[in-house]
Structures are given as C-alpha cells and as structure tokens.
Specification:
Length: 405
C-alpha cells in the first residue's frame, strides 16, 4: 500500500529526529531536550547532529562505561557529554528548530549542567596514555542558519565547576531569525593553552518568549500587583455584603468602669539582620537561632545562577565563618527583585542559593550543616520601583537554624 506524500514526509521527519510541531504562543519546543537514547560513546542522542572537528570522535550519549562516566541523569535515563581537548579541538551538537527564533524577541531558556568527576580517554598529544578530561569548561549557545553554522553567540556560562546538576537560566536575544541552535563546550577564556575538560547537559527547557527590556518587566509586575490588590479589596468587602444588621452593642458593668492602665508589654527582641564588617568576624557568643546575616558583595551573572569571580572573597569569609563555628547549622536563602514572574523568581533564587551551598561543600563544609531555599520575590526589603531598591532585594542571606551541640 502506498502512503500519502504528507504521511511519508511526517515519518521522515520523525525518524530523522526533527520536531513535528511547535508550542503555543511562540514557545519553541526542542526535540529530545533531555538527550534520551541508548548510552553509547561517540554518538550524540537522537535528534542532535555532531558539529565537532573532522577526524575527531563525536559527542557521547552518557552514562557509558567506556569513559567511566557514571553520574545519574538529572531527567530520564541519559544525557549529553561534551569534551574539550588539549589538541585545540572541542565538541558541539546542533538541531534545527521547529520554527525560527524571532529577531527582536527575547527567550527564556534553561538547562541542567554539571561536570563528571571522571571522563577518562586517550590523550590527543600522547596516545600511549589515558588522561582525565575534568578541567572545568564552559557552555556556549549559538544561533545559526544551518547545522553547525555558529552565526551569533546567544549565551555562554562561566566554567562549570559543580559535580552536581545545577539549573542554568539564560536570556536569549537573537539579532536575526535563526533556524538552528548549537550547544558547544569551550575552554575558560581567555585561553592561554587548550586543555582536557568536560561538561554534561540534561533537561533543556522550551524556548519561552519573554520581555526584552526592563520597562516591559515593570509593566508586567505592576499588572500582577494590581490584580492582587483587586482580589484583596474584594475579599475585604465581601463580609459587608450581608443584609443582616450587626447586633446592638450592650455595655456591661465591667465596660462602664474605668479600667486600670495596664503596664506596657515586654517586647522580646526578635532575631535581627546582622551586618558585620565580615561574617568571618562574628563572635560565637553573638550567634542565636533565627538570626539572619545578609551577604553583601555577592554577585551573579544577569538572570543566571553563576557566581561572579569577584564574589569568591566574600564566599571565603562565609567558609571561614563555618570553619570557626563547626556546630552552626545554616540555611542559605536566595531572594530576587520583583521584576520577574513568580515561577522564574522562585527558580532563580533557589538556583543561586544552591550555587552558594555547592561552593561551601566544595570547600569541605558538611552537607548536613547546610540547607538552601529560594524565596523569590516574596520578602522584599526595599521598593522594586527603583534600580537601587531592586538591587537591595536581589540578595543572599544566611540564617542560623540551630547548633549541633
């Protein structure tokens, strides 16, 4: 039996691993965003095309025992492994989008990234020995007009340091209607010399259209706030809609007497935010449960959970504080300003708090002493209508949860 041409075309697209339809409201769904396939070295997951160097092996569908990569997938069963090599070659994959990215439209995009503790393969400079491809490398995201056509760098991370899966959030702003997207591993820049490194990729999100400028974000936030205020007013007025009159107030003898003035209540001090010159200088006897300590000079990339290199000095102070107070249990709380959607703010603040926890665990702080939580935009300490206020709201705080002794 002959198949109609339209059905035949759909089947071809399916077996080639291409998306068949696009999402709603301009949302672009990637095909196989979780990189699912049979684990195998030197073969990318279905739907993703190798964009590496001629003569070099393609990327890997991990975990595969060939290179001793054993990490559990963040989503599903498999993920993508990309390596950079000491012979100045690196790996990349590409996919044709179900519809082009639109010039002038920004896109909210996220992906889980980490690196493997082991990625053992032959050296490209000395083929008689194995080397471990574990030096931290970065991810670059390109837009183009064909497979492997790296026309425009849409986003890049700093070096992926964590051995744990972390969600990285991106704001993509194409300058043309790109039809393809490319994921590439690359060295730390500036690159003094090439080296062996790896990154692992899993659970990519759809590309969700989002406002490009701050004015649009403010308008969205104000609209959401007005809607909340309207609901609050309705709830406040609803009890008064009853036709039943209030019962008359009857004065009792006790009410007619002049009450004896009560002594002013004793107000117990509440745990206050502490701003020491350095958290490392806090004295043990000054610490109490529930106390919050705001961490200043801690900066992240725009809309990202990547800690800026200039922040490592203050993170070292937090590490010293934990080392000098080995019985202290803390929560790392992330907070954002009010210019993003509730879900986005919650996720971004949680990712940033987790990034700080990962840093401390990487320095040797026990995971049992750390917890982390994203509060999003729910606890502002300043107005979101000014740049300075928004800067204050976007913060990380340390809360003393208790003491192990």
């Amino acid at each position: 039996m002959r198949l109609p041409i339209s059905v035949f075309a759909v089947l071809i697209m399916f077996f080639m691993g291409q998306p068949l339809a696009n999402g709603q409201d301009g949302v672009i769904e990637l095909y196989n965003p979780s990189f699912e396939d049979q684990p195998m070295n030197s073969r990318p997951p279905r739907g993703w095309k190798d964009c590496g160097f001629p003569g070099e092996s393609p990327p890997d569908t991990q975990p595969d025992p060939t290179f001793q990569v054993t990490k559990q997938a963040q989503d599903g069963n498999t993920y993508l492994g990309l390596v950079a090599r000491e012979n100045d070659t690196w790996e990349a994959v590409a996919q044709r989008l179900s519809e082009p990215l639109k010039k002038g439209t920004c896109y909210d995009f996220s992906m889980f990234l980490c690196r493997s503790e082991l990625y053992v393969s032959l050296s490209r400079l000395d083929t008689d020995r194995d080397v471990n491809y574990t030096t931290p490398a970065k991810l670059r995201i390109y837009g183009g007009f064909d497979y492997c056509d790296k026309q425009y760098l849409l986003a890049e991370t700093k070096e992926i340091i964590s051995f744990r899966w972390l969600q990285y959030n991106f704001k993509l702003e194409p300058i043309a209607d790109y039809t393809h997207i490319i994921f590439e591993v690359f060295y730390k820049t500036p690159t003094l010399f090439p080296y062996n490194g790896n990154i692992l990729l899993d659970n990519a999100s759809p590309l969700q259209p989002m406002p490009c400028n701050e004015e649009e974000l403010i308008a969205e936030a104000e609209e959401e706030e007005e809607e909340t205020e309207e609901i609050a007013v309705v709830e406040q007025l609803s009890p008064k809609t009853s036709n039943t009159p209030d019962p008359p107030k009857v004065e009792t003898p006790e009410e007619k007497t002049t009450p004896t003035p009560a002594p002013p209540p004793v107000v117990e001090p509440t745990p206050a935010e502490v701003k020491p010159a350095s958290i490392a200088d806090l004295k043990r006897e000054d610490l109490r449960e529930g106390q919050t300590i705001r961490i200043d000079r801690l900066f992240f990339g725009m809309d990202k959970a990547i800690i800026d290199e200039g922040s490592y000095s203050v993170l070292s102070e937090v590490y010293l504080f934990m080392s000098r107070n080995p019985d202290v249990l803390i929560e790392i709380g992330g907070h954002t300003n009010g210019l993003c959607s509730t879900n986005y703010c919650n996720q971004l603040s949680a990712d940033r708090a987790e990034a700080v926890a990962d840093y401390l665990m990487g320095r040797g702080v026990s995971p049992q002493r750390l917890s982390h939580k994203g509060y999003g935009k729910t606890i502002p300490i300043a107005t979101n209508s000014t740049a300075e206020g928004r800067k204050q709201n976007q913060r990380v705080e340390i809360k003393i949860l208790g003491f192990s002794n």
